[in-house]
């Protein structure tokens, strides 16, 4: 795996600051925000200086029940080519549900939602990852996500789920240590155990980000400084393996460049502390091996016998030494072997189950079961339907409100005229709308649907604001922008009538 070094998430708001920051080896850009034919000048200048740019996708929904959309895959591949990237990344998440597979309305989450850690979900995810790998020109890495809610009836820990995913597909892993912290607070999961179960040799790079805690729930905001517990998890990871790259994420509430540089310095210190612990462990291991050699072969044979007994008791499960796969498996020829494009080689191309055993394929049935479960959860989150059995209703409520708040924030960015027209009434009106009106397309479609919803209800009450909102909606809801000149609008309307005759 190519070593990337230390990087930062490139965002237009901090583009100039990123260009001037010392010690930036690479950057990551949100793939959907990059137009291949019109790359931002800042990214072009960084590339000319030899700074690697990695596109980071957020909309594929590899963890969803449907197969990845060919158009989205082609668009992601186009951005890889335009940026000359050595790899591309996405998320282990679902972002939409419903549709033909479940004979239910299509719903968009507008956010990354967790995949249940079940055999059905793993089988579907593995097939979706393979489809993406075949469509992309460079290796794919997938990221563990943060979650507010837990699925009932999960069959694996996060580490085991990721281990099997990498084992069966050869996909690289993007490990977000901030998300491990989030899941520790929200779901009681042990970050150290997750790291011990991971196939560390599959790590492509690491994300580090900040968040905040409110009412016992950790929100992975990417808008706050990186807290000490996240840096501690990074040190723990670095004590086990030297990650090829580490990147600081910040998506909003951007501080002064000096503060970002301070966070990058803290990340480097955390990596150095982990590296020191790793070297100490290697020295201790070397000393133990030398002592065994001096003790004679009899003691060595006895120790090997004890080790074999211990492995047998652990049933060769991830987490009993498998976290350091290079120490227990021949990665060059075993189940995590990859070709030069990052696709699985050896046995990894076959459908495999626990511990590499083949599983009978029932892809269609697994997709339908997963699709029904995801549609029920997403409908509860965004359409106000009953919470599916087994979920924490309070947490589902928290997640639903967070999704609505994010929708309000993003719609305000893609349609900045709406908060101006509606004034202080924009946010409460949108949150009320979002409680019962799920998003079925992108955020721009959502903005138009929201405006139409208000107009049908005779709102806003102020006649001037209502006229302005109607004009805004008419300007953007048709196939072509309305002319500012009434005579031209009349000519176009007459032409449409004549063409229909």
Any descriptors?
501 residues, globular, 8-stranded parallel β-sheet, alpha/beta, 18 helices
Largest sheet: 8 strands, parallel
Helix content: 40-55%
Question: What's the N-to-C terminus distance?
Answer: 63 Å
Shape: globular
Strand order of the largest sheet: 3-2-1-12-9-8-7-4
Q: Averaging pLDDT over every residue, what do you get?
A: 86
Q: Would you list the SSEs in sequence order as H and E?
A: EHEHEHEEEHEHEHHEEEHEHHHHHHHHHH
The number of strands is 12
Low-confidence stretches: 306-335, 340-360
Strand content: 5-15%
Which oligomeric state applies?
Answer: single chain
Number of alpha- plus pi-helical segments: 18
How much is the radius of gyration in Å? 25 Å
| Class computed from helices, strands and strand pairing | alpha/beta
């Amino acid at each position: 795996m190519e070593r990337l070094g230390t990087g930062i998430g490139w965002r237009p708001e901090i583009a100039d600051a990123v260009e001037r920051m010392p010690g930036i080896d690479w950057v990551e850009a949100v793939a959907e925000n990059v137009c291949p034919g019109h790359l931002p000048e800042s990214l072009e200048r960084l590339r000319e200086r030899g700074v690697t740019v990695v596109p980071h996708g957020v909309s594929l929904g590899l963890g969803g029940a449907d197969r990845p959309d060919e158009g989205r895959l082609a668009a992601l591949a186009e951005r890889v080519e335009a940026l000359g990237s050595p790899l591309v990344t996405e998320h282990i998440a679902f972002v939409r549900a419903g549709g033909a597979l479940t004979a239910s309305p299509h719903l968009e989450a507008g956010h990354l939602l967790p995949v249940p850690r079940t055999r059905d979900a793993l089988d579907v995810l593995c097939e979706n990852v393979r489809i993406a790998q075949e469509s992309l020109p460079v290796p794919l890495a997938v990221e563990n996500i943060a979650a507010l809610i837990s699925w009932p009836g999960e069959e694996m820990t996060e580490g085991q789920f990721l281990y099997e995913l990498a084992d069966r597909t050869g996909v690289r892993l993007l490990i977000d240590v901030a998300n491990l912290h989030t899941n520790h607070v929200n779901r009681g999961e042990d970050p150290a155990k997750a790291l011990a179960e991971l196939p560390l040799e599959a790590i492509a790079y690491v994300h580090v980000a900040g968040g905040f805690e409110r009412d016992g729930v950790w929100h992975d905001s990417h808008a706050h400084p990186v807290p000490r517990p996240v840096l501690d998890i990074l040190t723990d990871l670095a004590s086990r393996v030297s990650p090829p790259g580490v990147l600081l994420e910040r998506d909003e509430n951007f501080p002064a460049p000096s503060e970002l540089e301070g966070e990058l310095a803290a990340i480097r210190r955390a990596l150095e502390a982990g590296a020191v612990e790793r070297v100490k462990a290697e020295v201790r291991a070397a000393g133990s091996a030398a002592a065994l050699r001096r003790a004679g072969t009899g003691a060595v044979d006895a120790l090997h016998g004890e080790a074999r007994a211990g492995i047998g008791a652990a049933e060769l499960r991830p987490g009993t030494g498998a976290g350091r796969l290079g120490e227990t498996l021949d990665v060059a020829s075993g189940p995590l072997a990859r070709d030069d494009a990052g696709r699985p080689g050896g046995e990894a191309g076959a459908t495999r189950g626990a511990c590499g055993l083949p599983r009978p394929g029932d892809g269609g049935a697994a997709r339908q079961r997963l699709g029904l479960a995801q549609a029920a959860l997403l409908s509860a989150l965004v359409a106000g339907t009953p919470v599916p059995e087994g979920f924490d209703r309070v947490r589902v409520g928290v997640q639903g409100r967070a999704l609505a708040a994010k929708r309000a924030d993003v719609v305000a960015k893609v349609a900045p005229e709406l908060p101006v027209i509606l004034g202080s009434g924009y946010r409460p009106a949108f949150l009320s709308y979002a409680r019962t009106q799920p998003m079925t397309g992108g955020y721009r479609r959502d903005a138009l649907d929201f405006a139409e919803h208000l107009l049908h209800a005779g709102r806003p009450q102020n006649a001037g604001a209502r006229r302005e909102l109607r004009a805004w909606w008419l300007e953007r809801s048709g196939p072509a922008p309305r002319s500012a000149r009434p005579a031209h609008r009349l000519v176009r309307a007459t032409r449409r009538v004549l063409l229909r005759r």
